[in-house]
Design brief:
By secondary structure, this protein is α+β, with helices and mostly antiparallel strands. It is built from eight helices and eleven strands. Strands 1, 2, 3, 4, 5, 6 and 7 form a seven-stranded mixed beta sheet that branches. Strands 9-10-8-11 form a four-stranded antiparallel beta sheet, with helices on one face.
């Protein structure tokens, strides 16, 4: 929306969940090939992106002091990459209102970066086409291409190959955050890809015959056994299934209705050891 010499746009940046995450192999470039069923949630951050004319500086601020500012922030890096690719000589101010837990396996930083890309492309009259925008997203992070559009998808390769996925829209997700972070780099480095049976004990049929699994649970649960206990407690608390999202430490349960999910969430919240969130899938595209 125009505002004097400035233009600004507010973007909703959803958290994502991995309903399935298979780590297939390590690539020569140091990344890993994955196959993952990802969904965007109606729970997330808000990012306000403002264009500043007569200035070429990028400023990023956040209401959560845990979030880095400057080049260490993916949203800041997204703005720089976009401006370079678009050849735009303008300043950008990014204001992040943070709700997604930091380093929780919910891709909050990646979602903020995707929101900045969407906002800048709209504000500057779409200088990048869809392919250029997706390429820019992948330069910033493996989850960013998925979060550009924010539709349920099978994500393959390093994150660049997306196929539409169908997931029940009535499911409710109870999300538990234990109050600490897990480095995704550490989780991947400590995954032993020679282990043949990396699947979890809980199988639940999803779309296209994929079972609910996360290979990264193996190293993360070994290091943080309390997360495996949370997963077991969710299943024992009437969840249809439970899983760790991404590299953790967030663990979530799948429920048939919001009332049950919130009731179970209150039980966990009363014990005071985890932060509790409830969410549903986003059904409309963000792009």
């Amino acid at each position: 929306m125009p505002n004097g010499n400035n233009m600004e746009l507010l973007e909703f940046c959803p958290a994502k969940l991995n309903l399935c995450l298979e780590v297939l192999r390590k690539r020569p470039d140091g990344y890993h090939d994955i196959r993952s069923l990802m969904i965007p949630l109606d729970f997330g951050d808000n990012v306000l992106v403002r264009i500043i004319e007569g200035n070429d500086a990028i400023e990023c601020v956040c209401d959560n002091p845990e979030v880095p500012v400057g080049e260490a922030n993916l949203a800041w890096r997204a703005a720089r990459a976009f401006l370079q690719k678009a050849g735009a000589k303008v300043g950008v101010k990014i204001e992040i209102t943070k709700r997604i837990p930091v380093a929780g396996g919910l891709a909050g930083g990646s979602s903020d970066a995707a929101g900045v890309l969407r906002a800048l492309n709209k504000l500057l009259s779409y200088p990048l086409d869809d392919l250029q925008l997706a390429d820019t997203a992948l330069e910033i992070g493996s989850d960013v291409p998925f979060l550009l559009a924010g539709r349920p998808a099978w994500v393959e390769g390093r994150g660049e190959r997306l196929r539409p996925a169908v997931v029940p829209t009535h499911w409710v997700y109870l999300i538990l955050h234990p109050g600490f972070g897990v480095s995704s780099g550490w989780a991947y480095r400590n995954l032993n890809l020679t282990i043949k049976n990396l699947e979890n004990n809980i199988d639940y049929p999803l779309t296209e015959g994929v079972r609910m699994m996360n290979h990264l649970e193996v190293p993360v649960f070994r290091q943080y056994p309390q997360l495996e206990e949370l997963k077991k407690k969710l299943v024992n608390s009437r969840a249809k299934a439970a899983l760790m999202s991404g590299s953790g430490p967030v663990v979530f349960g799948v429920f048939e209705d919001m009332e049950t999910a919130k009731g179970v969430g209150r039980e966990f919240a009363e014990k005071g050891k985890v932060k509790v969130y409830t969410a549903k899938i986003i059904t409309n595209s963000l792009g």
